[in-house]
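Input record, target 12 of the design panel.
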């Protein structure tokens, strides 16, 4: 997939600080006078938000193939309705997760074949893909500690085992290692301001 100018994603396990960093980054870029939109996956359109509720509801027993298709369906709507038009209009798009999450969670986490996953990217995203992604890397134990501090009830994905999240984390590191030209791996255990500084320093020259 060829990365699109102005399109960036944040990746990492839950609690790695993506939401925090998205807010800091969007704020910094807006202060520079740039037009920025932020999106979160799954979600971001009426249909994608409904799919999000379906996927994350702990009451739903969803088989891996259906999970993969649901994430892909939510992404297809988001790309078509929001991301592609924003890029077309010359805006910067910051995504809290994009397709790399599917490779990490459904591919490495669930053990699904990456070839059909990549085919779904083509169907759902066409030629829309982040130019560069920032992997906020955090050990699973730290992730769990942060989520416990947050105190909100765990959703269907967050109820997965520690072994699942170890596979996801290792999967992310493998993906980033295979795509060094389109990933920056950042130690997410640092203070939020330090992480923000690293992301900003890498991103600005890419604009
Ligand atoms: N998923 C999938 O399986 N396949 C896919 O294709 C896609 C997604 C797109 C979506 O969850 C779930 O769907 C997710 C992956 C899966 N599931 N899992 N498990 P979500 O959208 O509800 O949430 P999330 O993306 O996983 O992350 P999150 O819980 O919102 O966390 P975060 O955005 O990475 O972190 P945060 O909210 O910024 O921070 C978490 C806490 O840590 C909070 O208390 C902060 O104040 C604190 N924090 C943040 N930064 C720091 C630093 N630097 N130091 C200390 N504490 C910090």
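The sequence produced for target 12 reads:
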């Amino acid at each position: 997939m060829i990365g699109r100018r102005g399109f960036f994603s944040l990746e990492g396990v839950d609690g790695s600080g993506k939401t925090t960093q998205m807010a800091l980054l969007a704020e910094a870029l807006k202060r520079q006078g740039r037009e920025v939109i932020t999106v979160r996956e799954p979600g971001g359109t009426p249909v994608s938000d409904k799919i999000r509720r379906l996927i994350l509801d702990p009451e739903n027993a969803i088989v891996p193939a259906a999970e993969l298709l649901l994430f892909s369906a939510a992404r297809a709507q988001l790309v078509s309705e929001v991301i592609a038009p924003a890029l077309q209009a010359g805006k910067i798009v910051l995504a809290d997760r994009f397709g790399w999450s599917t490779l990490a969670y459904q591919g490495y986490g669930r053990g699904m074949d990456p070839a059909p996953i990549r085919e779904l990217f083509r169907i759902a995203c066409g030629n829309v893909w982040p130019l560069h992604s920032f992997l906020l890397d955090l050990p699973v134990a730290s992730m769990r500690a942060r989520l416990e501090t947050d105190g909100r009830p765990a959703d269907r994905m967050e109820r997965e085992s520690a072994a699942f999240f170890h596979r996801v984390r290792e999967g992310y590191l493998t993906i980033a290692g295979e795509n060094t030209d389109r990933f920056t791996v950042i130690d997410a255990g640092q203070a939020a301001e330090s992480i923000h500084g690293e992301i900003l320093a890498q991103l600005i020259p890419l604009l």
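Residues 12, 14-20, 40-42, 71, 96-97, 101-102, 105-106, 146, 149-150, 157-158, 191-192, 195 surround Z5A (CB under 6 Å).
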